[in-house]
Amino acid sequence: MEEKQTIPKTQKQEEEENWGSKAWKLLTKVREKAPLIQCITNYVSMDIMANTLLASGASPAMLHSINEISDFTPHVHALCINIGTLSPDWLPSMKSSATLATQLNIPWVLDPVAVSASDFRLKACLQLVGLKPVVIRGNASEILALSTASVGSDKGVDSSQKSTDVVEVAKSLAQASGAVVAVSGAVDIITDGKRVVGVHNGVPMMQRITATGCAVTALIAAFLAADPLRPFEATASALSIFGVAGEIGMDLAKGPASLRMHLIDSLHGLDQKSVFSGVNITSMP
Hints:
Blueprint: H1 11-33, E1 36-40, H2 46-56, E2 59-61, H3 66-72, E3 78-82, H4 91-103, E4 108-111, H5 119-129, E5 135-139, H6 140-148, H7 167-177, E6 180-184, E7 188-191, E8 196-199, H8 212-226, H9 231-250, H10 256-269, H11 272-278, E9 281-283
Parallel strand pairs: 1-2, 1-3, 3-4, 4-5, 5-6
Antiparallel strand pairs: 6-7, 7-8, 8-9
InterPro entries: Hyethyz_kinase (IPR000417), Ribokinase-like (IPR029056)
Keywords: ATP-binding, Kinase, Magnesium, Metal-binding, Nucleotide-binding, Thiamine biosynthesis, Transferase
Cofactor: Mg(2+)
């Protein structure tokens, strides 16, 4: 009987197959560690961000008062800053928390929501980028505007660009800022300025639920807390895990409202088999 020849796997194939294992290990760490994640975020997203963190096993703290920052921020495991409903009253809290986090080596994530909507918003974001976020996550239009520091007429929090169209822009921003940059889209792009991967998880209906992008930014913070030394892997894994939960939830959903519920339930109930078979992350040129 003739023996079958085994074709050796390429390094790229092995890396892509290993992403499921990486994502599962990180999710398991989040569940075991229950990291405390401080979120200075917008009014629209607070509920779904907190519930996403709880469903993943993390502990959310929606704390933004400047009077509490110096006492509280030093004790968190990660920080998430989202400028969705930015105001002059909240910006000092954001800058103070980000400064403390950087000084104390606490990983923090910036979500530059609608960064080009106003000069005030753009300048605030540029100041926050200067405070060294570990990860910056936004849609393609937001990343483009932040990278070029231009005020334009993008559609608020919606993107008029495809994530795959701004890969080089994202790489440049990562190199300039020192942050891992994640670009959300039909394919999520993650880069540290050299490596680039694409996350092919999620369903279009997730775009019909307000603040899902904000929620996944908070999840990135939780994964960073689980493994602060590997922000590239933590970011890609969090985006993929959230997308897998959305795919499972979509099988049970009838529309955006029920998908929101089933997405959170699915994130809570993810098991090793679902993660290993569902995670779809590929290397990109």
